[in-house]
Write a structure and sequence with these properties.
This protein has one helix and five strands. It has about 110 residues and is mainly beta. It has one domain. Strands 1, 2, 3, 4 and 5 form a five-stranded antiparallel sheet that branches. The longest helix is centred in the C-terminal third of the chain and has 16 residues. The relative contact order is 0.22.
């Protein structure tokens, strides 16, 4: 593909996606991406998302509170505080991200 067109400011390719459920029963999705255009960053990076359950109350408000009669639904929220990885391969990027995830997110605490 030709990303040299000046209308394209940035392009990334999602190379591999892995979903993991930790022993704490928290679910995460790791997306290893390869940067094709637009940044001078490392060639590979990983985005991390956590599966969260939200609740919609009869009043149409949405929150993490499940009190009362509510409809529950799941969303993937980006884990912003995950450190950047600087690998030379997709597998190395995922390995670094997974090690961080197991070390810092394998607990029941949910920062809502």
């Amino acid at each position: 593909m030709d990303y040299n067109n000046s209308a394209i400011a940035e392009a990334i390719e999602i190379v591999k996606t892995v979903e993991v459920v930790l022993a704490s029963n928290r679910s995460f999705r790791l997306e290893a991406v390869r940067r094709l255009k637009g940044t001078a960053e490392p060639q590979y990076d990983v985005s991390c998302y956590e599966r969260r359950t939200l609740c919609k109350a009869p009043s149409e408000t949405i929150s993490a509170d499940s009190a009362g009669s509510v409809t529950q639904f799941a969303v993937w929220t980006r884990v912003i505080e995950m450190p950047r990885v600087n690998p030379d391969s997709v597998e190395a990027a995922l390995s670094q991200a997974l090690n961080w995830l197991v070390t810092y997110r394998n607990n029941q605490n949910t920062p809502w």
